[in-house]
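Think of the structure tokens as a kind of shorthand, similar to the way a musician reads notation: each symbol stands for something richer, in this case the local conformation of the backbone. In the example below we present two proteins back to back. Begin with the first one, reading the sequence and then the tokens, and try to describe in your own words what changes along the chain.
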Amino acid sequence: MHSFKGYPRADGGVGTRNHVAVLASVICSTTPVQAIADQVPGAVAIVHPLGCAQVGDDLRQTRRSLTGVAHNDNVASVLVVGLGCENNQPEELAALITSPKPVEVIGIQALGGSDKVIAAGTRTVGRWAEEAAGALRTQVPISRLHVGVLGVDWNPENPDKSHETVGAVVERLVDAGACVTLGVDQSLAPAGTELAARAVDAATRERLEAWGRGRERRRWQVGHSLDHHDWRSDEVRRALRLAPLTGRAQIQSVLEYSLRPEGPGLHLMQAPSHPVQAMAGLVAAGATIILVVSNRGILSGAVGAPTMVVVPRASQGSALDAAVDHYIDESVGVEAGAASVLERLIAIASGEPSRLEEAGLLEFAIPQVSTPF
């Protein structure tokens, strides 16, 4: 039975990292948030350009994403920093963070300026960071992992075994009792009809079949009617060639962006094609480590969870080699390749830094539901 060394939490979760999160409720507080995090080792800044005049679905998605990151088991404590006049009020945001971890709120207007916020925030975050630095990792079964999986830089016209190999990793994790959330954008969505055969219940099957029938776009008019567009035959063919990334495990649920799955097993989360936004959604959904499979690598990982990048061995020698954690060697076969990927994943989950962590190439971004003005 595989195991890893993680940080057990009071609510039963286990983190692969022990961050102190400094979270901006609004774009206007990003500068002090970044300044606080920069001064305290072990702190991470959760910043974004949203939260001011947001309403409706956009505000709900921003709040769900930010509170999801705060609930992530990689986060030991949370400082929410606001301005004071934003729609996304910091006190309301903090009240949605219900996990048993320290949460405090400070505001620029309430304290009388950014300098005072930076000073006060640095004291609080510094104290928490010292406590977090003293925590020890504990050996726990791999069933306590929550792995986010994402495919980027698709090349379905020149398929290789990397997606099949990662699919085999997904199967091994699910068989071990872990939770796996796989981000699905419109490259993979046309395979929904085929994936529906693996759904555990009628609601999940219906959602996947809807993906398979086509995409819908909301109109800007009274009633918000939807335009339906069937997938083209070439889009379906490409999606079916990418579907092995999901492995063969049963699909427990289909989630909206940044929603946390309930229970172990394989879950699919609707994700934007922008990889940073997709990874942020996986972190908000609870992923404590992210496995990215790409044709050649990516230049940004997620804030809040280590990002492990795997690419085909044939891609070695590209300008993105410095961001790659593992090369998949097709010559050894899918099962041997999956075992090698899983070994590296466990090492990173146990504290070994990923290449993107070492380089400090980490970003955070939340997509908007509606068209911004």
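Once you have a description of the first chain, move to the second and do the same.
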Amino acid sequence: MGKHGSWLARLVIGLSVAVAMPAFGHGGVVLEDDQCLIRMGYLEAHFKIYLPEARGHEQYCEDLPSAAGAVFVMEYQHEALSTLPIEFRIIRNVTGLGRFARWQDVQDIDDLDAVTVHHRPAAVVPDVFTSRHEFGGRGEYIGMVTVTPESGDRRLTAVFPFSVGFTGVGFWPWFVLFVAFVLINVWLVRRQVR
């Protein structure tokens, strides 16, 4: 492969890992085996969002293409979730961190109630947890699911930043263009060296 080829391979692999890392570490909802999972500490649930009036039965993990009525659904993976109080809250994302906001950033917000757009107080929901909210417009939000274990000593919270009304393609086209630019430059340099 040569000196330039191995350098290029390391660069492409490094960039791929750097770009993929935020996707895997993003919030409390992850895509695993074509299923969206939300993790509250050691507890897991399948997580789906529906926009029934705007998009029918189409399912979303986080980002929603339309500002409309949304139904948030959690199907428990751990039976314990059917016996524990679950609280659900959606706030406007005022952290300035976009999709990189975490629980620590939410805790730094002075008045959580002032930025809350939807709150379902803690309650035991035996079967499938659902909550409905009507989004009035585009924006960035943070969803929070909090479970209080029976011991009551430590609440388990999942935080997932998401956007509403965004239909763009994101950063992937820019990444592909950057990789193509690097490959063309390496090819030109190798050609000049010969």
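Compare your description with these statements about the second chain. The two ends are 15 Å apart (CA to CA).
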